[in-house]
Amino acid sequence: MLGLMMNEPLRIAGLLEHAAKWHGETEIVSRLAEGGVHRYTYQQAHQRAKQLANALTALTIQNGDRIGTLAWNTHRHFELYYGISGIGAVCHTINPRLFAEQLIYIINHAEDRFIFFDITFLPLAEKLAPHCPKVEAWILLTDRAHMPETSALPDIRCYEDLLAAHSAEFEWPYFDENTASSLCYTSGTTDQPKGVLYSHRSTLLHSYAAALPDCFDCSARDVILPVVPMFHVNAWGIPYLAPMIGCKLVLPGPGLDAASLFELFENEKVTFSAGVPTIWFGLLTFMREKKTRFSTLHKMIVGGASCPPALLKAFDEELGVQIRHAWGMTETSPLGTVNTLKSQQLRLSADEQFAIQTKQGRTIFGVDMKIVDDEGRELPHDGVAFGDLLVRGPFIVRDYFRSPHPGELTADGWFRTGDVATIDPAGFMKITDRSKDVIKSGGEWISSIELENLAVGHPSVAEAAVIGVAHPKWSERPLLVVVRKAGFEVSKEELLAYFEGKVARWWTPEAVEFVDELPHTATGKLLKTKLRQDFADYIF
Ligand code: ADP
Q1: Fewest CB atoms within 10 Å of the CB: 200, 237, 388, 537?
Q2: Beta carbons of 98 and 522 less than 8 angstroms apart
């Protein structure tokens, strides 16, 4: 027997429709790639998203067609999120930080019909266009006044002209909630990038989950500034969450340096933010130099890479900002776990609480997880045993877009994350490594992340990476590669001594090497494959 409730499909356009109707006056503020700050309301954003929907329909965009974006976090990108998905097409957010060959591969693989791009990316678009023959036109996200005089692009159009030519009379269509809504490719550090194709249903369920108190805990009274880009995993769902709860949204555009961010945080009275650790380290240094504090920011999500305990402590103690450490990936929409304490843990000492908070956190409803050994046997939740982390749920990938091996990815119902983790008795998951980065020394595993977190706690260390290097006796031993802070001196011996008493003796790195900079992926993560190549012939 089926239930007798209304069968209203979950649709992305419904989020903006809701915000326009019930939070119509609430603002969306954005810094633009052309310069200046733009502000309008949800009501106006909705009107323009409907104009865009009419424009796309006139361009013969059909259900399921892919449309690419190469854009910063701005109100126009926000309109694309809704206008494209709202008519049943797929909003393909492209990460402009990827290498040109990867971008060409991605655009051709997705068969994007149009690409909307910010003026910053004009030279990039000109470089890509000759290699992307299926793109019918390149649409610049700007007004007539900012259109370039000449461009090597074969068919370049102006976004504001496109919108101006269409009315805001539009009824968002109804379709199956499992319809594809947006597409994001993983950065693929070793392999070709792989497309994760989200649906309206997965996106809305993820938004409900993100809004929960033990997750982002945001409300209509918040002002949210996503530092995390809209071109990578939908800015962790914030462009959907904000209209759902009706809060003010502040979009930083290309201004991701500490000074610009701080100015926007203060001017717009931002209360909540989200981003990767590197951004917050930059902001922390800036705040220390300026001897200043935030007047309204009080909570933020840090994820995408392990949040070093030193960062958590500094934001909490020096700046009065609570960091919630979170874990996720493109394939998980991306939220998988978020770290907030359970009531019984509030009785623990501050140090004990802190030790818990440095973990990646507890799973949220909608994500089930387990850790398994090499034979696929489930491991205990004792906080010690570590194994491959597997997840499943309604906003976890089932298959990659146009996969050559459909059905194989999650044949047993679970998605293998490629991360290695422990889970403690209270359910807190801790990433110890990516499976390919684990260091196997004398048959035992050493966590490179744990050693890196410790190393960046040293006052002279700006950034650190630990990799396994072949060793005649132990098969592999950890090598610590360090970038020193400008103007700081520290010797190799001092750094090694710093690990004493903090980790088991055999975990202490075998050696230290200093470098000027470490290699990073397009999304700012340590590129350990490159580092392992660089130090392949290293002799301890
Ligand atoms: P990509 O695979 O394209 O680099 P993602 O952005 O999807 O992209 O990255 C997901 C990976 O990032 C995770 O599998 C994990 O290894 C790492 N990661 C994300 N959040 C954390 C975190 N809080 N701590 C440690 N690693 C993290």
Answers
A1: 537
A2: yes
490-535, pLDDT tens digit by residue? 999 999 999 999 988 899 999 999 999 999 877 778 889 899 999 9
Q: Is the CB of 448 under 6 A from ligand 1?
A: no
Q: Is 358 a catalytic residue?
A: no
In CATH, what number is assigned to the domain containing residue 182? Answer: 3.40.50.12780
Instruction: Say if residues 230 and 274 touch (Cβ distance below 8 Å).
Output: no
- pTM flag (> 0.85): yes
CA 528-483-436 angle, 5° bins: 15
List the catalytic residue out of 26, 179, 186, 422.
186
Domain of residue 520, CATH code:
3.30.300.30
Please give the residue range of the domain that contains residue 60. 34-201
**CA nearest 422: which of 392, 450, 380, 454?**
380
Query: How far is 448 from 465, CA to CA, in rounded Å?
Result: 8
State if residue 327 touches ligand 1 by the CB under 6 angstroms criterion. Answer: yes
185, 201, 217: which is the final residue of a domain? Answer: 201
Q: Is 445 a catalytic residue?
A: yes
Asked about 440 being catalytic, the answer comes back as yes
